[in-house]
Backbone:
């Protein structure tokens, strides 16, 4: 199978590539772009808004905030989530905080600095105009959340408290203990429930979107399955908004919730929405390692632990001794050795790759040999156990609860894990996908984080999209798209409904010999090994050979008990895993075409002599957006050229 | 719901204070407070039996100085008891409806038996109350009742171990009921505060014990011939 | 690594309308490092491959924050470990040969959906009735224009930590939702932003709690003892006080709006 991708210079002749994409960014200086767009926009008359219906899929930070805000404006909103309540969307698990350029600390922060940090942090693969708008809006988000009653941490004088985060040189992160995501989501959820109570939003919990319906080139509705009764239904609207999160669960083991999935995004992709930069995935270096084959998910331990913990592995391969028996001279503090300047505090991607490297050498610790020690003995000796308990007590407790080990006595074992995906459905400046009338927000879109997301920026983006961008831009679309009213009885809906029912029928007649989970686990292992922390051409080609084989087996040998007319968790998972198979392949294709290393995408062939990521701005300063061409057809690559007029392209360096 | 103005938390339209379980609990707490106040005074008065027949009978006669005051007090007490029992029965019905399918297995971590069986300790006290009034107030169930000679009425009966036993067991129920009730009413009336929760529990326990022990001391004293 | 076996008596119920019963399963080769839900995953894998129906239980984040999971283990909500959701409960807390009874939350307001999963949408409706601050998007003043004393912010946060799992209702001898509703009322009641609607909020939420058919609070403290987030019943006292005050101070409804 020829897997060469033409370079941009030869794109005009490449069969699998096409023209460039226009993000419809407003003209003018970057500071004025959002103002300009808001002024240019067509507005729907307040009295007419109730005549427009909008479907919002997902009820996380982006979905709930958008649904509530649009209902406040007067639109007829229908919101869907697969969880039993909108309050349980996975945004709730975010711990650290939310960035905003408030400059409350008087340390020189500004919209410009947040913008700059985010573009640089994204390794120059994000869209400048979007990032600038994000930084501008960040300040409004904090105001809005405070007004809702989000219990942010406070100083004794009653003002908002900030912490530093993720390499930024200013203190701009707002937080609510270690549960910032929970509190922000509850704020949005409460706003949403207010609208549900007022009859302005119709909520559909335990309902999964299984297809997008496009009529005359515009998104006009969705097909859903009621997860309690199994009933499939068609819902028509004037626009569809996806806030359905990322695809980290393609790896099976991730810090995502078990239910997090890419099905809504992927089915929309198959209906014509381009999928951008799927290979941009973020790996968090400090997670609790896998304990056994039964492992169902991974748990993040705050990165702050690296401030006082020292990371090491035994110098000898397969050393069977317990850590306390290994003398100092036989330990390899590999981060301190390789990066004497940054030591244990190197950035996430570097720390992750280094851990993988020592484990690949056979020096990993713990069951399965996939783990490294994070040792607090020195800090405890120097500062005393009480100081460490004060700083990290809750994390140590969580570690002890999960592993049964006492981290005050025995070094923690940690290993990197997937926890965020920067890639997602391609959207223009207005957050509209390549299907007119379908908008994408939050982690589900691709635009703001480039190849690497900074800490405390995901919450910011989800809420910026939901509260302050989409409610405006969707009006602009609706005001200009006075199409005929379409009912769910339209043939396009009936066809889509038939397709979904057919797929369900096929699944529930599968009586093979393997569970859905066993396939998901195996797929995840392939993607983790070949398209995880480090990728190579040979590895990616191996994955691209192996994934279709496994998918074939999945189609013929999966076991799905029960029927489609009841609550059937195996059926739900099967549909999601089927999509993960296809998405995994696209990830590998995308990783293969991107012959450079940047951010979370590290190609072993493209590194500096010191082993650092080597970007190729000449050839790859673009967002890669893929167009679906049919089952088993090669997807077409479209490029959105990224221009950096305000931030200069430089090599990130940690030396 | 859908007719309300955009999202405003509109106040409930019906007079719903008592409809809510909190309202019923407030009624229970207030009437319970009346009852608790009564038993404290009653118990203190009873201790007069230790002073002998003359003084105790004089005290009993004093209580009947004004029939107006007496009946007013009896009416307040009766009213409280009726409201207390009414709310209790209504809450008990709500509780049964709130969990129609019981647990096959249920364990408790914090709930004391006293707190879980208020309805039963209360029922026992209700039955005791009826018996007690027929026994010592009207004399209906008293074999040798002498109007006005309260000392005789009491001591003659408490010499019988069975009668004394009934009173002692009832006082054990009173202890359990008061011990939880006195603490719980601080919660129901919103008087509780994290800083004083332990104090409230302690005071409730102590008061319940003093009242129950004070009452119990009378049959015990008679039984053991300290008072005859 | 220690492995052992367990006997599970699991409540099986196909849907809300059908009767349920306990079915006994063996869980062999349980590793002490498994979480409780991972142990059930393994039992389910076996059931699926041997032609059985997997046990349905709600779960999602598996890190104790989404509030999806929860059922009774031997009569205790979320099982034997304090301040721990069932997804964070690990098997090292159990002994070889132990017999466990797994039951769904039992409450009229939480009808069984299937097996161990229940419908907790009553909680959503209680929030919809008034568990919010009316602050339409765009109407906010600067964040620091609203000063919140740190102790108040901390008390609000203690209450806001509620994950809405329903363990309080499940464990309460009376099936009361007092702790859940008091947590939200306390969260917003401790903040200046929550004051304008404080009276209406408590009246509306308490009314909705009544309509949903939850039982009454008898201050047993059982909810507090099983709450995975350690929310205290002092918030219930505060709710009761707010309710009393609001009921006394309630003004006749204004004649404009909301009359339909």
Residues:
């Amino acid at each position: 199978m020829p897997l060469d991708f033409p370079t941009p210079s030869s794109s005009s002749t490449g069969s699998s590539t096409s023209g460039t994409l226009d993000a419809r960014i407003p003209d003018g200086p970057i500071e004025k772009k959002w103002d300009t767009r808001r002024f240019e926009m067509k507005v729907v008359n307040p009295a007419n808004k109730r005549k427009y219906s909008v479907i919002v899929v997902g009820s996380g930070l982006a979905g709930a905030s958008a649904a509530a805000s649009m209902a406040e404006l007067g639109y007829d909103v229908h919101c869907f989530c697969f969880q039993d309540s909108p309050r349980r969307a996975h945004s709730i698990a975010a711990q650290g905080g939310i960035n905003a350029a408030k400059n409350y600390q008087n340390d020189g922060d500004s919209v410009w600095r947040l913008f700059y940090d985010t573009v640089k942090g994204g390794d120059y693969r994000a869209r400048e105009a979007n990032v600038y708008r994000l930084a501008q809006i960040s300040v409004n988000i904090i105001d809005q959340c405070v007004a809702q009653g989000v219990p942010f941490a406070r100083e004794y004088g009653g003002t908002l408290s900030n912490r530093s985060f993720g390499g930024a040189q200013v203190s701009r992160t707002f937080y609510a203990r270690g549960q910032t995501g929970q509190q922000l989501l509850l704020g949005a959820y409460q706003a949403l429930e207010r609208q549900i109570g007022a009859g302005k939003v119709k909520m559909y919990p335990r309902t999964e979107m299984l297809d997008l319906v496009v009529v005359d080139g515009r998104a006009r509705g969705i097909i859903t399955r009621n997860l309690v009764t199994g009933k499939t239904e068609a819902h028509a609207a004037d626009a569809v908004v996806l806030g359905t999160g990322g695809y980290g669960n393609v790896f099976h083991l991730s810090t995502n919730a078990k239910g997090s999935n890419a099905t809504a995004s992927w089915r929309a992709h198959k209906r014509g929405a381009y999928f951008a930069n799927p290979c941009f995935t973020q790996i968090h270096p400090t997670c609790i390692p896998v304990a056994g084959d039964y492992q169902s998910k991974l748990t993040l331990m705050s990165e702050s632990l690296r401030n006082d913990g020292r990371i090491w592995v035994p110098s000898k391969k397969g050393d069977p001794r317990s850590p306390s028996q290994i003398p100092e001279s036989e330990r390899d503090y590999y981060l301190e050795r390789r990066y004497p300047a940054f030591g244990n505090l190197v950035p996430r991607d570097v720390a992750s790759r280094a851990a993988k490297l020592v484990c690949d050498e056979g020096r990993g610790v713990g069951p399965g040999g996939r783990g490294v020690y994070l040792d607090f003995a020195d800090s405890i000796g120097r500062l005393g156990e009480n100081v460490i308990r004060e700083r990290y007590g809750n994390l140590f407790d969580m570690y002890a609860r999960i592993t049964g080990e006492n981290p005050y006595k025995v070094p923690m074992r940690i290993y990197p894990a997937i926890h965020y995906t920067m890639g997602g459905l391609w959207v223009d400046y207005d957050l509209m996908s390549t299907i007119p009338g379908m908008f994408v927000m939050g982690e589900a879109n691709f635009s703001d984080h480039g190849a690497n997301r900074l800490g405390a920026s995901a919450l910011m983006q989800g809420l910026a999209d939901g509260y302050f961008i989409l409610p405006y831009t969707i009006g602009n679309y609706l005001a200009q798209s006075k199409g005929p009213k379409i009912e769910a009885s339209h043939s396009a809906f009936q066809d889509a409904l038939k397709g979904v029912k057919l797929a369900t029928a096929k699944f529930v007649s599968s009586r093979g010999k393997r569970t859905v989970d066993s396939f998901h686990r195996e797929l995840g292992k392939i993607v983790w090994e070949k398209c995880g922390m480090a990728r190579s051409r040979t590895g990616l080609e191996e994955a691209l050979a192996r994934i279709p084989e496994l998918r074939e087996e999945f189609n013929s040998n999966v076991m799905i008990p029960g029927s489609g007319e009841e609550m059937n968790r195996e059926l739900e998972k099967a549909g999601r895993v089927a999509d993960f198979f296809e998405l995994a392949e696209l990830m590998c294709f995308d990783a293969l075409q991107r012959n450079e290393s940047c951010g979370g995408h590290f190609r072993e062939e493209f590194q500096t002599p010191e082993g650092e990521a080597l970007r190729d701005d000449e050839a790859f300063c673009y967002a890669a957006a893929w167009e679906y061409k049919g089952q088993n057809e090669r997807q077409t690559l479209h490029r959105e050229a990224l221009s950096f007029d305000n931030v200069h392209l430089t090599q990130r360096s940690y030396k | 719901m859908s007719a309300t103005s955009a999202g405003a938390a509109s106040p409930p339209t019906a007079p719903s204070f008592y409809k809510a379980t909190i309202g019923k609990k407030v009624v229970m707490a207030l009437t319970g407070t009346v009852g608790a106040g009564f038993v404290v005074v009653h118990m203190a008065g009873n201790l007069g039996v230790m002073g002998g027949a003359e003084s105790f009978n004089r005290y009993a006669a004093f209580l009947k100085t004004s029939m107006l005051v007496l009946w007013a007090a009896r009416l307040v007490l009766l009213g409280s008891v009726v409201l207390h029992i009414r709310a209790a029965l209504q809450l008990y019905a709500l509780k049964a409806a709130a969990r129609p399918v019981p647990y096959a297995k249920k364990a408790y971590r914090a709930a004391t038996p006293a707190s879980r069986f208020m309805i039963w300790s209360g029922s026992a006290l209700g039955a005791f109350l009826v018996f007690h009034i027929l026994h010592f107030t009207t004399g209906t169930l008293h074999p040798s009742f002498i109007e006005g000679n309260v000392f005789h009425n009491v001591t003659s009966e408490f010499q019988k171990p069975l009668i004394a036993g009934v009173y002692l067991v009832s006082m054990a129920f009173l202890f359990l009921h008061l011990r939880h009730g006195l603490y719980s009413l601080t919660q129901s009336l919103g008087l509780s505060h994290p800083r004083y929760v332990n104090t409230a529990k302690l005071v409730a326990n102590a008061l319940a014990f003093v009242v129950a022990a004070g009452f119990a001391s009378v049959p015990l004293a008679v039984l053991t011939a300290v008072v005859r | 690594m220690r492995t052992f076996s367990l006997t599970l008596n699991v409540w099986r119920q196909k849907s809300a309308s059908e009767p349920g019963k306990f079915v006994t399963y063996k869980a062999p080769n349980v590793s002490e490092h498994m979480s409780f839900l991972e142990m059930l995953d393994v039992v389910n894998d076996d059931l699926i491959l041997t032609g059985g129906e997997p046990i349905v239980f709600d779960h999602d984040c598996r890190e104790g924050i989404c509030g999806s999971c929860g059922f009774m283990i031997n009569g205790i909500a979320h099982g034997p470990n304090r301040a721990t959701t069932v997804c964070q409960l690990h098997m090292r807390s159990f002994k070889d040969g132990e017999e466990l009874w797994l039951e769904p939350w039992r409450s009229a307001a939480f009808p069984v959906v299937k097996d161990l999963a229940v419908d907790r949408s009553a909680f959503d409706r209680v929030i919809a009735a008034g568990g919010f601050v009316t602050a339409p998007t765009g109407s906010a003043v600067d964040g620091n224009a609203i000063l919140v004393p740190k102790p108040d912010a901390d008390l609000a946060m203690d209450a806001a930590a509620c994950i809405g799992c329903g363990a309080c209702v499940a464990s309460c001898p009376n099936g009361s939702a007092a702790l859940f509703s008091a947590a939200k009322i306390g969260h917003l009641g401790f903040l200046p932003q929550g004051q304008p609607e404080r009276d209406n909020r408590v009246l509306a939420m308490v009314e909705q709690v009544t309509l949903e058919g939850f039982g009454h609070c008898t201050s047993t403290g059982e909810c507090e003892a099983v709450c995975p987030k350690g929310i205290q019943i002092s918030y219930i006292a505060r709710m009761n006080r707010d309710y009393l005050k609001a009921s006394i101070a309630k003004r006749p409804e204004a004649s404009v709006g909301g009359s339909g």
Q: What stands out?
A: Confidence is low (pLDDT under 50) at residues 255-260 of chain C. Residues 234-249 of chain C form the longest helix (16 residues).
